[in-house]
């Protein structure tokens, strides 16, 4: 019976491998296919975003716990930096941002209002003075914060870790 179970699992693995995009052909698609077929996550209603299922999230939590302990052993502390970053911060780092600028989500307004038909619309009176970028990477906001925290060599080293989501719409 054990041998039959092993054969069935082998067959399922071979079948799944044939259904996956070739890793050498399109690595990103192969990875997404693998995550979905393994039942770790599924696509959501928002293109390019996934729902991480409980088993997939349990794997993430275990990895994070192990890494967090390792970081703390070296004196690192966790911090969290804003999800929204002023566009002017990216202008200062134009060469750094150039590679993923087309993948950035931009927030232009801070409020919705009723459209009078049972739906909602962006409130044209709620336009932001400065557009905000939904964090594609955290360096620009972190460096601005470190500039305030570090006034002399005595403030170093900063041993900071951040666990955070980023948004890059690679569509």
TrEMBL record:
It is an enzyme of class 6 (ligase). One of its GO terms (cellular component) is cytoplasm. The keyword Zinc does not apply. GO terms for biological process: prolyl-tRNA aminoacylation. Residues 42-171 form the Aminoacyl-transfer RNA synthetases class-II family profile domain. One of its GO terms (molecular function) is ATP binding. Its EC number is 6.1.1.15. Keywords: Aminoacyl-tRNA synthetase, Ligase. This is Prolyl-tRNA synthetase, archaeal/eukaryal type. It comes from hydrothermal vent metagenome. The lineage of its organism: unclassified sequences, metagenomes, ecological metagenomes.
């Amino acid at each position: 019976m054990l041998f039959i179970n092993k054969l069935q699992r082998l067959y399922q693995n071979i079948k799944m491998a044939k259904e996956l995009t070739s890793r050498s052909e399109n690595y990103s698609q192969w990875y997404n296919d693998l995550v979905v077929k393994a039942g770790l996550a599924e696509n959501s209603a928002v293109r390019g975003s996934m729902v991480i299922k409980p088993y997939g999230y349990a794997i993430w939590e275990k990895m994070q716990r192990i890494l967090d302990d390792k970081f703390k052993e070296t004196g690192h502390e966790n911090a969290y930096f804003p999800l929204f970053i002023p566009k002017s911060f990216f202008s200062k780092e134009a060469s750094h941002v150039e590679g993923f600028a087309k993948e950035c989500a931009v927030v232009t307004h801070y409020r919705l209002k009723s459209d009078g038909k049972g739906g909602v619309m962006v409130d044209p009176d709620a336009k932001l003075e400065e557009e905000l970028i939904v964090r594609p990477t955290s360096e620009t906001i972190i460096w601005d914060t470190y500039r305030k925290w570090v006034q002399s060599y005595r403030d170093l080293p900063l041993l900071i870790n951040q666990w955070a989501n980023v948004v890059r719409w690679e569509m």
